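Researcher: Please generate the 3D structure of the following complex. Treat every line as part of one assembly.
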Amino acid sequence: MELDDITITKAIVDDFSKTFMDYTEVDVALVGGGPANLIAATRLAHKGYKVALFEKKLALGGGMWGGGMMFPRIVVQEDAKDILEEFDINYHEYDNGYYVANSIESVSKLISKAVSSGVQVFNLVSFEDVMIREDDRVTGIVINWTAVSVANLHVDPLTIRAKVVIDGTGHEAVVCSTVQRKIPGAKFDGVVGERPMWADAGERRLKDTTREVYPGLIVTGMAANAVAGAPRMGPVFGGMLLSGDMAAKIAISKLD
Amino acid sequence: MELDDITITKAIVDDFSKTFMDYTEVDVALVGGGPANLIAATRLAHKGYKVALFEKKLALGGGMWGGGMMFPRIVVQEDAKDILEEFDINYHEYDNGYYVANSIESVSKLISKAVSSGVQVFNLVSFEDVMIREDDRVTGIVINWTAVSVANLHVDPLTIRAKVVIDGTGHEAVVCSTVQRKIPGAKFDGVVGERPMWADAGERRLKDTTREVYPGLIVTGMAANAVAGAPRMGPVFGGMLLSGDMAAKIAISKLD
Amino acid sequence: MELDDITITKAIVDDFSKTFMDYTEVDVALVGGGPANLIAATRLAHKGYKVALFEKKLALGGGMWGGGMMFPRIVVQEDAKDILEEFDINYHEYDNGYYVANSIESVSKLISKAVSSGVQVFNLVSFEDVMIREDDRVTGIVINWTAVSVANLHVDPLTIRAKVVIDGTGHEAVVCSTVQRKIPGAKFDGVVGERPMWADAGERRLKDTTREVYPGLIVTGMAANAVAGAPRMGPVFGGMLLSGDMAAKIAISKLD
Amino acid sequence: MELDDITITKAIVDDFSKTFMDYTEVDVALVGGGPANLIAATRLAHKGYKVALFEKKLALGGGMWGGGMMFPRIVVQEDAKDILEEFDINYHEYDNGYYVANSIESVSKLISKAVSSGVQVFNLVSFEDVMIREDDRVTGIVINWTAVSVANLHVDPLTIRAKVVIDGTGHEAVVCSTVQRKIPGAKFDGVVGERPMWADAGERRLKDTTREVYPGLIVTGMAANAVAGAPRMGPVFGGMLLSGDMAAKIAISKLD
Amino acid sequence: MELDDITITKAIVDDFSKTFMDYTEVDVALVGGGPANLIAATRLAHKGYKVALFEKKLALGGGMWGGGMMFPRIVVQEDAKDILEEFDINYHEYDNGYYVANSIESVSKLISKAVSSGVQVFNLVSFEDVMIREDDRVTGIVINWTAVSVANLHVDPLTIRAKVVIDGTGHEAVVCSTVQRKIPGAKFDGVVGERPMWADAGERRLKDTTREVYPGLIVTGMAANAVAGAPRMGPVFGGMLLSGDMAAKIAISKLD
Amino acid sequence: MELDDITITKAIVDDFSKTFMDYTEVDVALVGGGPANLIAATRLAHKGYKVALFEKKLALGGGMWGGGMMFPRIVVQEDAKDILEEFDINYHEYDNGYYVANSIESVSKLISKAVSSGVQVFNLVSFEDVMIREDDRVTGIVINWTAVSVANLHVDPLTIRAKVVIDGTGHEAVVCSTVQRKIPGAKFDGVVGERPMWADAGERRLKDTTREVYPGLIVTGMAANAVAGAPRMGPVFGGMLLSGDMAAKIAISKLD
Amino acid sequence: MELDDITITKAIVDDFSKTFMDYTEVDVALVGGGPANLIAATRLAHKGYKVALFEKKLALGGGMWGGGMMFPRIVVQEDAKDILEEFDINYHEYDNGYYVANSIESVSKLISKAVSSGVQVFNLVSFEDVMIREDDRVTGIVINWTAVSVANLHVDPLTIRAKVVIDGTGHEAVVCSTVQRKIPGAKFDGVVGERPMWADAGERRLKDTTREVYPGLIVTGMAANAVAGAPRMGPVFGGMLLSGDMAAKIAISKLD
Amino acid sequence: MELDDITITKAIVDDFSKTFMDYTEVDVALVGGGPANLIAATRLAHKGYKVALFEKKLALGGGMWGGGMMFPRIVVQEDAKDILEEFDINYHEYDNGYYVANSIESVSKLISKAVSSGVQVFNLVSFEDVMIREDDRVTGIVINWTAVSVANLHVDPLTIRAKVVIDGTGHEAVVCSTVQRKIPGAKFDGVVGERPMWADAGERRLKDTTREVYPGLIVTGMAANAVAGAPRMGPVFGGMLLSGDMAAKIAISKLD
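Model: Done. Output below.
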């Protein structure tokens, strides 16, 4: 059989555009493709929800690829070891209660499991704004190709309706920042900015900073600590994974 | 247990530096983390060879993440369908003999399988030069942090000794180009540059362009067609996967 | 009626993706949205051919918007006055045989007439390569979002099959340059580069430089003179308009 | 007849400089060449007023060319359908009350009608400041070549006297921002900045946000919502067109 | 009397546009506002010729302002001392035959004398191309605002007809380079590029390198040595001034 | 006589370094080489004071070279006509009381007269800070090569002691801004920023805004209006010249 | 003996990684490699403390290399002359009490003595954050490769535990700024920013501005004056050297 | 005693300008401040020659600061161990014949010894050209502030006369490249460019590649291998140090 270039083109455009049309209305829209959001998305898709995840870069995974100071290793503590096993990520104990994993293996497995579970990923797509309604509720997100802003083009965005939006955009917490900047008088706690490094306190705080900060908007991972003004943690990822797990649970409680 | 930041730091530095020391001498050094090299590396690690793969960016996967024109889908033809199944990559038939897969799932699974198989990946590391000896044979590669050149720093590189080097760096074919530029009189075919797009011919040509082009240096994937002046293919990846498979076989025949 | 954001999104995505699917195979693909190509495209669409025009920038019109030295006026000579009238472009005589028109009116009317005539325009899309076949014939073009290269992303292109391709990309003559660079031994005259300014000679030469330079590839407008090494003309546009007219005629003779 | 380069040069310089001299004093100066201002300018020129429109870029039309997310389509709702027809812009109904039009056709026809109606357009010219007088009234604008600031040159501007100035500069609302920044104690409402996306509310609000915000200064289109802190709308353009219509009516009431 | 902004604007536009119209046809067009061209232009204007000088930057004077290594002093030797006196430039003897002058005084007096003598200067205007005719003769130049290329705009140039063109553009010799690049087969000596520093030889060579290199095109100053492959001189300016003097004489012999 | 490169080098270094040593202590240090400061410096040097002027760019003259919108013409009103004559600058009357001059002639003559009068000019040198003493008095300035900051080098500055410092740095008023930013509690009026364009009011205000704003620090030209929050004027220069004249008078009253 | 590339690589990696592991816990961590910190580090290492110094650039020495205005000389006053002698730095008296030294000799000797004394230097490493604990005490620093931020990579940092941290980062005082920005309610005096130049007062103030500003954090050199709002000094280095001396003493008093 | 800012300024300017005047004529001018040139300069100064070394950056030392891949360690082999000892550089044996030293200590000691020995260093100064004479002999160099080219200024250079010039500019070999480019027909071997990495061969080749390549021009260090097309070596520095030693010997033989 001779390969036809045009059929290849059609297969890609047809499959993607149908998916895009279908995913303009979802149960959960996750912004950011880092580890916390990948866990949350996987959990939600497993439960049967319609889940879309938007990542501004080409590759998902955020800062996890680079480990610590470009040495591609991460550390996970005791209580998150189960998640590593669940995602088939190899690890070995370095010291009592400290487990080392390959950051490249970790991130690629988090991504592949998410997609296998039914999460629909849109990469190269940036969050530009939230959608709101009178009842002061986030009802979706406004998106655009990342390339549009990088190339400094003036092009209008499109919209995704979502019952729940999860902000997993790391230090910048872009969804929360947008809500705070654009709805000054709203009943929102505000983005305080992360405090200095303190792995232990940062990990512990994630348990309560992962929460619904505004009707329809949940925050997870480093973004959760940034919004609450809690410490940053560096290359230890246990809390991140557990935060994603918790964000999924909160979302489910809102969706049911 | 209270988490200690310094133990986290030590775990990462210790694990990585021991690995780096160990992998200064390998059986096969693969340059570039695109699909062909990921297949080749996985095959070689499965066979028990000591394999290091060097990727200049943070994330592996090259252009596969973006599918065609930022629509994250790829097409694979009939004869490479087995590889998709082997790597647990989902697909569906679009047209007779044309299979569509999610590019994000595909690339993340190729990466995770490679690492699981024992391939040691060094990301954020760039190829800077080859190592040679009198008998006109590539005996390893010269590497540096990618950040060094991006930040325009003047810092000396380090070296990796390898019995076989595989160039899977895509259109640029940087290893082959370096050999050609620096050893003008050597018995090398030269880098011709890829011809216009023609998926069918490009895919067919890969079968003979994947080969040992210089003693100790094998070329695979799009780099193979670029070196041979064969057509480019676009977002159809069957030939790439089969080329990686073949590169591994050639490497094995040299190593034994 | 309350406006629904998601219906707006769906309307745009649905309409565009159906059009894109439909236009992966066309009679004529024109590269570049300058005046010569706009005339050619309009003529071909009027005749009932399926015509797609690809423009790399946001706005079509090329250098015509800026007139001469940012003074938004153009000059047209006697023999192209009919085309101005046909496109409802106002003008007045400056000197015997020299007609002045508003460059902004001229370019916006050329664009609007083209679209009204049925030309399907794809803006923000760049030409990346040609498609060829054994019989040394251009059989289509390879395209990508302009934003992909501006943002320095590594993303594969898609393809458009066309019976005829018209290169109207101005001084750079990108389609012709690509054919010449990639098919060195082909039966092609080559890209000589334009000669110094000489309006009169430049305009006269366009009559024979507008032609089929390679099977399936016609060149028009300033690209035609650049390929032939003929003089450039500056802000006099009569020859450009007539060249577009001629390119359409040559294309029709090939299509019938 | 042999074409003479110098006569071409003279024709352009002579025609433009006479027009520039003539338009240093106008009835209405519109800043920004987006859809709302194009409608307003066309209406005013039809009524016989002397109208100058200043656009900082080479091409007019602002973000309309790119449709939504680089898919060149726009949506218009029921109550603005008449304007499409009036400007000969083709459309079809997508859903009940939602009409889709080609964004390239739309923008080129808005521009060409404006120029045909007698609007004098100065492109590549940036707004730099307002002119004022004791009675706290905007009496004109201060302009410069856009290229001067892009090239980081230090060159003084020139001035245009106008009875009415209309700010149609989109999200930035540059004329209103300048008045607010430079006349702190003035009786001006201030630039609040647009709220999150909500097409329906954004469109409705435009009816009262389009108004005279400072003596001699009217604001229209997205700039009107930005100044009032009303929601943004995305790629639905009905409200924009009606806002331009209303801005023209307000201007006429001031001029008579 | 109350000052009127609009009258100021009109005075500037009116005076400049009349001058520009008048100077589209001149006796001599000098490209570059460095010392050699300033001398040449002054001489020619004194003789009553119609002379236009085009400078791409805001200020004329080229590298003379900075003296040597940012120390604003220049050196002039014995045989050019008369020119300093003629232009009222102060100097004092440093060593036998070496005279030191203030570079800022020198350059400002060369400029002011040129304008006083009737030279019409167009600054911020770049040379873009030459105009030619069948008889292989330079008949003028093609110009554009410098800001157009700096701002990366696509805008057509305009033209100036001249009986003689003088290239005084320093090391780059842009007019000569353009002639050589665009008229490959022409009877032109070519641009060899300047040789290493050797003040004495460089100064002596200027006497014969200042000449008509192509019909209608004279080269002077550092451009003359660059075209001839003669040595560069550094911050000694006697030869430059004498070269300008000679270029004027050659031009006069052609004009009469 | 054979020219010796090294003698040329020595002549420049010797002359400049002696001058620099001598001018580390002056009567008046003027920051900025625009028209107001050039007038002030010339007046002060004529009176016999030791005067140094520091200009950050290669050429002096600031925005005067470019006239209005790159048309190299300026306008001067009746009451400053005498200064034009005094500096031998040609002009002609455009309208009753409005005189047009060539901006290039004007600026070059202002510069050449200043240097001839004995003003010592240091170009390519930037103001970095003021020097102060307990009695809250400006006692000099801190300078550095402009190239140091442009090249982003970390190099310490040097100092110039002055009895009076004049800030003629235009819109930015860098000396005044530095005093305000660094001495928050000082008895200084503050930098308000210029108001919108209004030539007549701007020119009139300059008469009282030109003054000693802090002990030892006088402000002149556009900087004076910027500090006082008075209107800007555009390309009319009468007030600038008179402001320089007045700044000199104020300085003389302080020095005597 | 034949040199083996791989042994060279192993020697470097092995030696560095062991040192890095060892220095994750130190007595004193100094941030910034300028003169004050080099003195302080040398003193502390001489006393037997475990000392690590982190410099973000390739070379240590900060602004000292460039002397004053790129003339590589520094001045030291009487009371710091002893330190020059102690570090074998040559000098000569210029004026009574003013000693001139070669800045390049000075800086290279300060660096070489520090390393010889046992200071462990990590160059190309940037300070990213502080580490803190409940008792509001700085307990270490967070570091990353400088190249990571220059190359705009997203990579997690690592940590160094230190009993005392010394901020010697010059004008920016980055450690102090970070503490102030991230711990708003903490008992910290704040970063006021340096006052204008006044060498004498600046030097005198350093004696009391060099101090522990926050538990565990000492500030020295120009950073000390910047934090206290004291004057800057320019290229006189006596106070800097004495400040480093004092910082060491304060640190020792905390460590014992 | 109160410190006087102006005396500090004078001390620096006076000392530097006298040195600069004195060093416009030297025995040896070394271009580049890397290890080979530092050794060569030290040797020559010890012998009593007048030696000037020009370094384009702020700090000397070139790539030595960064060790291998940003790990600040270097390796030196047996036969260069004596030089380490002579320069008081600490080292320890890693493996039989391989000695590891701290790269920061090594480079700072090479620099400090050079200056102590009487080498006059000019940093921030770039080589721009060579000086030549009829007898085809390099007679000196042409220099400029590095900041001039970085800031893209147009400023003339100055000159240094030297009996011998040594090119120690590393991979680029800028002096040799300039001679080759500007004197095409000269009796020079040419710049071949370095071959791939091969530490052993690279080190051995340095013994014969370090030589006088053109009358008056010696090449040393990596520049020597680059000119000869010999292999590069990476972070092993023994050969570099020995090459500097040899370059000094060749220079001495020419000078005597």
